[in-house]
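Tokens as discussed.
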């Protein structure tokens, strides 16, 4: 297939790209920079210039494609609502190109949107449209273009990690480095799920090659890691104290991250593993936190 890949030079997209090429697909990669274009060409991909702030221009890369994998996202989490609204506009623009065709569109969301009730693990067969998490905008946009005849599926992400970057944990590390303390909220029993970036990349390719319209897949290797364990690993890496904070203290300490720090976000990938045959084999989150260089500021 000829696949248009947004975010092709990003953290996840740059891992999806070689997986697609190794599987025999042609890739048109989106980038906004000359440096990104050079990296894409060196990797064996064609280049499409586009920017998330210009949804129509970005979506033009889908012209002539047999399928689209959309991983590009504005990772300025201090403006998370705006970033999610922007993603919805890009998905709708991609839908304009793919409407009334059978060409797959694989979009990206977050596992928390599959949570059936507080304290329960998120599932692939659940979509909480009323969830206050702003990433709901991505899946609502996916449903809207699906209603127009676009063949949409969703890959929901946990904390995706390697020894350099770990999703929302990366800004927590930077904050702990700055304030010289690694905290958790209350008893630290709230849980986050995770997966190694290489495993996540393979799931996107499986979701494309075994495309199921309307499906939601969970890229979850570890279902429930206590936040206290994460804080302790960061504390060891930075050699700073690990402490419990009340909700009030956490609001002051974490700033814009406070909305995430106490969230309980376990998730299952049982349906994904059974139906796609996905078998994550990468290192655990705590393994990667133990291997990282804590002297370096987390990459954007």
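Sequence:
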């Amino acid at each position: 297939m000829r696949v248009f890949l947004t975010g092709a030079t990003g953290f996840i997209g740059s891992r999806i790209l070689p997986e697609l090429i190794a599987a025999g697909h042609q890739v048109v990669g989106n980038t906004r920079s000359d440096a990104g274009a050079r990296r894409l060409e060196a990797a064996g991909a064609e280049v499409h210039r586009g920017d998330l702030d210009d949804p129509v221009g970005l979506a033009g890369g889908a012209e002539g494609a047999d399928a689209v994998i959309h991983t590009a996202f504005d990772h300025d989490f201090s403006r998370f609502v705006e970033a999610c609204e922007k993603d919805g506009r890009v998905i709708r623009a991609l839908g304009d190109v793919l409407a009334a065709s059978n060409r797959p569109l694989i979009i990206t969301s977050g596992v928390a949107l599959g949570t059936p009730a507080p304290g329960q693990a998120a599932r692939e067969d659940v979509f909480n449209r009323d969830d206050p998490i702003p990433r709901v905008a991505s899946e609502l946009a996916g449903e809207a273009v699906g209603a127009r005849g676009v063949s949409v599926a969703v890959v929901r992400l946990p904390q995706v990690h390697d020894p350099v970057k770990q999703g929302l944990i990366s800004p927590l590390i930077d904050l702990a480095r700055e304030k010289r303390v690694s905290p958790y909220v209350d008893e630290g029993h709230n849980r986050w799920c995770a997966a190694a970036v290489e495993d996540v990349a393979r799931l996107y390719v499986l979701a494309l090659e075994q495309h199921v319209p309307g499906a939601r897949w969970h890229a979850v290797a570890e279902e429930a890691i206590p936040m206290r364990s994460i804080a302790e690993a960061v504390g060891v890496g930075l050699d700073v104290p690990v402490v419990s904070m009340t909700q009030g203290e956490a609001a002051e300490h974490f700033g814009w991250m406070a909305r995430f720090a106490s969230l309980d976000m376990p998730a299952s990938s049982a349906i994904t593993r059974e139906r796609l045959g996905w078998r994550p084999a990468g290192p655990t989150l705590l393994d990667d936190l133990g291997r990282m260089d804590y002297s370096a500021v987390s990459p954007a």
